[in-house]
């Protein structure tokens, strides 16, 4: 699909309270990270749009045409959203490729996962059963769940369509109205998703899509008294600020934040599987992944041979045109993000790191025009080095040797983050022991970066709070309520007979 075909007819209008129109914010250009060509001029949301969207959402969820629908009726709309995503799958995959430069094979998978997310939460909604709880008197006790009201969904640029779906589907399923604020640099797929939701029958005002500045639009959404929950995915510092504001409002938040995930290769690991898994874990998505396995611990007995194979594998990765079916790593999202990755590599080398591969921009094949960076592996650092402790969010791997399990666990857990970890071993008892001892929300054993929408996901420590996905993911967008139904034949005794 050519650039012109894809973006022909693409309207840069935004969705505010049921109306597609130019936002009142500063217009900006959305760029293709592979060659800096202009995708579209975006009429970004301004402060007034954000306030209007919240007011419209608040009015919309109180109407009977969304929260008041029976669960199977809302589920039918969600299924139609999934159908719409599937019908527009190829266009959505290309829009996201233009947005953040991810290879087309990867954006296709993200689009398929977004459709699956809508179907999953439609099914959860239809099969959700409220409970009759054991009663202790002449009354019937019930626990039910109600929508929260207006939810602000704030998403990052690295997997827009999938992170949007992960918030929109459960929030809408639960009967809420949603104001979605995608990252400024990746508005295309989110706006298209807004159109799909509208066509599927999400009523007017129930969904707004506001691309724009986080510090303006995001901040207004978080502070607005009518916003009853913020579902945020992004960096830890922004998440911390949101949590502070939420504390003032006593508002629930879910925070999916950064990571610096350890991958551990024991001496008895299946080496072919481990090499492939480690390469995929850190270098897929060009390392722009919250769960990137960016700290690699390898047992001393196999360290040299394992790292040698890893470096050989990294040098073979195909870094280039995201449109090519066989590309494994596209460009980084922006030029300033690549600058920050280069600064981290320089810091690592100043700290005494040894560059084993990468550490530079690739040349040739037109890649000079985009924000490409070679897969980079650095050895010789300790776990305390800045480059090993701080999230880089790029294709940079630190490799560290270990000798015994106790020291390894202390080092693997010595991180402010606790998002994910990987273990490669043939010893299932060790996998169980180490897996349970790792302080992370997800542990992959003899695999990495695999996801099921049915399995909860979220971080420990500074990687976040709250859980997405799974059946419980739906209840995160509800208020629980207890109902007591009196069944007494006589008035309550306390007042006596009056
Ligand atoms: P970011 O925190 O800069 O931005 C995320 C979103 O928040 C964007 O939409 C942004 O506009 C908005 N925002 C920025 N300032 C805001 C403010 N003051 N108030 C409200 N909203 C604001 O993150 P990013 O650079 O877009 O994404 C990269 C980060 O996201 C990494 O740290 C990565 O680890 C994290 N991430 C986490 C997960 C997860 O599930 N844990 C998944 C993907 C990305």
Automatic annotation (TrEMBL):
SUPFAM superfamilies listed in its UniProt record: ALDH-like (SSF53720)
Pfam families: Aldedh (PF00171)
Aldehyde dehydrogenase domain segment(s): 20-482
This enzyme's EC code(s): 1.2.1.8
Species name: Pandoraea sputorum
Family: Belongs to the aldehyde dehydrogenase family.
Family matches, as InterPro entries: Ald_DH/histidinol_DH, Ald_DH_C, Ald_DH_CS_CYS, Ald_DH_CS_GLU, Ald_DH_N, Aldehyde_DH_dom
Transmembrane segments: none
Enzyme active site: 256
Gene Ontology MF: a single term: betaine-aldehyde dehydrogenase (NAD+) activity
Entry keyword set: Oxidoreductase
Coiled-coil intervals: none
Oxidoreductase in keyword set: yes
Name the UniProt record assigns to this protein: Betaine aldehyde dehydrogenase
